[in-house]
Amino acid sequence: MKTDIEIAQQATIVPIKDIAAKMALTEADFDYYGKYKAKLTYDKIESLQQEPDGKIILVTAINPTAAGEGKSTVTVGLGDALNRLGKKTMIALREPSLGPTMGIKGGATGGGYAQALPMEDINLHFTGDLHAITTANNALAALLDNHLQQGNELHIDQRRVVWKRAVDLNDRALRQVVIGLGGPFQGVPRQDGFDITVASEVMAVLCLATDLQDLKKRLSRMVIAYNVEKKPVTVGDLGVEGALTLLLKDALRPNLVQTLEQTPALVHGGPFANIAHGCNSIMATKTAAKLADYVVTEAGFGADLGAEKFLNIKARSGNLKPAAVVIVATIRALKMHGGVGKDELNQENIQALENGLANIKKHVETIEAFGLPYVVGINRFTADTEAEIAALQKWCETHDIPVALTEVWEKGGEGGLDLAEKVLQVIEEKENQFHYLYDDADTIDEKIRTIVEKVYGGASVEFSSQAEKQLQQFHALGWGSLPVCMAKTQYSLSDDPKRLGRPEGFTIHVRELKPKLGAGFIVALTGDVMTMPGLPKVPAANKMDVDEHGNAVGLF
Amino acid sequence: MKTDIEIAQQATIVPIKDIAAKMALTEADFDYYGKYKAKLTYDKIESLQQEPDGKIILVTAINPTAAGEGKSTVTVGLGDALNRLGKKTMIALREPSLGPTMGIKGGATGGGYAQALPMEDINLHFTGDLHAITTANNALAALLDNHLQQGNELHIDQRRVVWKRAVDLNDRALRQVVIGLGGPFQGVPRQDGFDITVASEVMAVLCLATDLQDLKKRLSRMVIAYNVEKKPVTVGDLGVEGALTLLLKDALRPNLVQTLEQTPALVHGGPFANIAHGCNSIMATKTAAKLADYVVTEAGFGADLGAEKFLNIKARSGNLKPAAVVIVATIRALKMHGGVGKDELNQENIQALENGLANIKKHVETIEAFGLPYVVGINRFTADTEAEIAALQKWCETHDIPVALTEVWEKGGEGGLDLAEKVLQVIEEKENQFHYLYDDADTIDEKIRTIVEKVYGGASVEFSSQAEKQLQQFHALGWGSLPVCMAKTQYSLSDDPKRLGRPEGFTIHVRELKPKLGAGFIVALTGDVMTMPGLPKVPAANKMDVDEHGNAVGLF
To answer: Which transformation does this protein catalyse, written as a reaction (chains A, B) (predicted)?
Structure first.
């Protein structure tokens, strides 16, 4: 069996201008980044504004397990399948972060015969967007610490600096640090910490900005500290929003690539859905919708995280209305939710599967609560038995849940035809009553309670004393009307990663709130979730190499 | 008077394929990075190995002052002038670092009518090389700290980790930090620090590597720590040289751009010459020499730093033999060396000029000591008076020093014709007896003494007790045959930045030695020189912005 990178390296990849031509884009409409990657120009994006909008199909999933779900794989395969059905389709994915790539997860460009290409470029530095974000984030930190050092005219309380530094790596030793040591010429000593770049507010700002001017306004609003009077200090107060915008001016332009079946794909923006809002950029999604009749896009992790944030935050910010949702599930992951260990997944186990169905049921209810048509997509793995698949299909039929088996990993777009047809059918036949789950006018705690009750299926919310104080403070500062971006483990509907399946009666523990005024939301940190991952004992990096022809080895 | 960025933005820039065509490069030989930047392919570089080598002209300078010398400007203008004289010429420059760009220095692509284009891209993220270097550097740090956290099989002494993290920014608050705080799940607490990326060993490795396999070997040799038995631990011991090579596989490919007069330029590698070896990459210099008959390249700061390292380190490592050297001087800077303050530079002051000539005299003697033909290039500024220029020219003639006035800032290549002719003349007429100033077999302290005496004109070297111990240790470890990379202030021939002109009888204080086995040299830190700069009270970033068309504002 070939590995993903072998399939990718042996694939026929065509010059990006040929992919662009499928969407009537000429060489004047983009800049090359190598032969197979391009960035669209602002002029072209602006010129598309009068075009009608294509239909947006959002791909989400059940709660992920160590068994893998293949959401990106299904997203790519569904796009390829829609094109096979003669529908003019584009894909809109997120950019991978080097942290997980070098850590444990591997790449994020799909798998098998449903991949985005050039796989190794996208999984490494790509067009440099994440590096530009890291740089803007850290330039701001350096400028802030320099302000402290050079007289501190803004009277920033050095104990109340909230802006953190960032690296696009899994580096747990940087979670909590002390900087500015060494005496009066080496800065002002203070506690600091690093987040992974994809969790940074600059990443969220880039993903939610609608153009360069909006980007600048959002950057200007970012809260970086509080002054000695406990008033917020913003980037605008520091006067460096222009420099940060300059650093991000190319990163904001969506990146065009292709799938193995030469479906055009915009891969742009890459926040994690557990600790950030988890969706690709509004610029990319909207541009894809202008260029194509159908856009297949994904939101990270399960529907409790990425999809909730897509629908409550990104859709609100970008005025987007999805046409349908695909909920990806695998037999293997459902069996894990049903209590089977990772080592026993290759054995048929109908009982475990049926026990695990509660997890998918919750996500179906969530999408129904948003008023959206949906299809459950079963992402077939080789070890799945006919009896298991039949049991899942039967359960879906019993509950009147539209379902399709996909074999895109093995067969590419051909393996996604059934899913594509079902998706087109629900778009056609089912009523779309899309609405947000909470109103802007709800208080921050009301919004959190709504998400916990309607999306997670939890019983209650407990705020730490710090979070209680912050609720009061944030409302007093007039930030109460912002949506909430929940930071929660992806493994469970609850905030305890060990509670698989469909836990009930649980409490969500909000330990801290963070104002992200540039992104336009309030982050609520729950449970023990961390904004900087660590590396495993044997990182994926240990297997990576370059062969004598300069090709990547050990990326997967 | 137009600013540099106005001149750059109003210039006629041609598609990079037309520039490539001048060197007989086709679209198969490079990858586009936008319309005006390209990276050469490894295949093409390899195919050039049988071609004869062009002549290398090294541009250096007197000790820089706040008044500016314009070494990059002269490098670009000289290349343009040689092309005007019908000589097939390429330029090989270093990539700018964002630290100084956002701090005080501004861009590093020349000035006036002698600039490399696209100026704003090169000065911002360019093709991402520096970001790849930062990422490789910090991925290694994360992998090392993860090794400590996950059982420390290599028995690394956490107090003796020598690998530092890096950012490509001026961020003094990161010079001395403590990481790994927060308890047993957040890493192993230890002292750490950040260098600016351009001072990192990864940057040096990239600039000295001759191909991808050599890069990997060098990365593997880098010393990252000592174990509990005080034995060195390398990247190879950690087993991650493959992953680092993968992260750098595109960064090692030279970048092709153009000057305002459409001279092809390879801009690649960007170490600082005060705290690193300060030359562009061997890959770029050698490739340019294969493609062109003349290559004009620069080494950073004064001849005591960049040129010394070009000639003792880079030339040795890459087996290069320069044909001639240009020593750039300005009337203004010589007056500063002669005792005039920055505010009085616009007034004619022959006496101060004559006092300052001692500085240029020392650098002339240095280049003579290396056995190389040279020309002094006077980089004319508008406030220079005829009497001042005549005095400088007369002094050169009296001392039999070849000299040429250049007006490339104002007139482009046309303003460099006299210098170009003089350079061609010394190549033709003068004897080239190029030799290194010390032998591999000399001890580390002998090498340092040689540099101090023959290049700086100092009287003695004082080693701190730490440096004394390190000398013994490094010789015992068999590292004594490596060349030495001096880290010293650029402002003075001594290690005291306030001693301008030509100080004599001074002692150089070596406070610490650092093994850089991947780069293949030993760094000697002298005086108070720091490997992470700070930002000024009002950073250049405060003036930067993007206009409504997405163009850079405030880059200079």
So the answer is: (6S)-5,6,7,8-tetrahydrofolate + formate + ATP = (6R)-10-formyltetrahydrofolate + ADP + phosphate
